[in-house]
Amino acid sequence: MKRIFLSMLTLLALPLCMLAQEVEVTVTLTEAGTLQERLSEYDYVDKLTVKGKFNSLDLKYLSEHKGRILDLYYLDLSDIEIVNSDKPYLEKSESTGAIGYNNYFKYYLTTYEKQEETGSAGGGHGLHAEYTYHYYSSSFLKAFNGCTNLKEVHLPKAMGKIVGESILGGCSNLERVVLPEGCESIGDYAFSGCTALKEMSNTSKISHVGSYAFSGTGELK
User: For the chain, what percent of residues have pLDDT higher than 90?
Assistant: First the structure.
């Protein structure tokens, strides 16, 4: 009994870094949409590099930021290849007015840029309107908004020249971002609320910065 007690004291005295070793994983996807499955062998992941074929399902898994990637703080998507998908990685809705006015927003990761609107509006005094807005883009619109554990993110070269609206907005612990080479445009609210942001790479070609793109990023020089 005494030996067990001493062993427990020794264990408690160990530094936390020795008790929970950092897990760093590199995954090359040969089939898009399989990232969650490929990470299933790990209990948790702290640092993740993804390469290969990547679609909306993979992005949806990352953007939800839960389960084994709940504490993920380093993400490198530099070398992914975007594969078109008809499934959204993000869905949002909003309701306004007493007459029943509903808007739905769906975001898809694609190699092309397109916006579509579908919907209907009723008539008479009981007007009820529903509209769905579909956004197809490679710019990762709103993809990691509110992922507060992220500290360093390397954005994909496949994004091209545009960084999407609210892509990392509200990521309050984000310290470093590596933009795709040749990036020319930063979307509205892209890094708004990233209060810890200190470093951003590949900015020399930027000619357009959207509204409030860097609002609240006091640390960034």
Answer: 76
